[in-house]
Amino acid sequence: MAIATVVTVAELLKHNGLAVEKKIMTSNVDMKDESRGRPISKAKIEILLGKTENFDELMAAAAEERAAADGDEQS
Q1: What percent of the chain has pLDDT over 70?
Q2: Which InterPro entries does the record associate with it (predicted)?
Q3: What is the C-alpha to C-alpha distance for residues 52 and 23, in angstroms, rounded to an integer?
């Protein structure tokens, strides 16, 4: 389930223009099943993202929108 969450967050950041995908790595990690005592293999994913060129502009615009919304609520 955690892999789906990581992929979803990465896709949202890319879709909103905040990040670009640089690298995706997948692997299997051997772990011990505590309830049964047997070794199990679990999937692992690493997604390396970088900021887009307009990241700072998008974040500044979002901050201005939040500040304006906060000002409207206090009035």
Answers
A1: 93
A2: Alba-like_dom_sf (IPR036882), UCP030333_Alba (IPR014560)
A3: 15
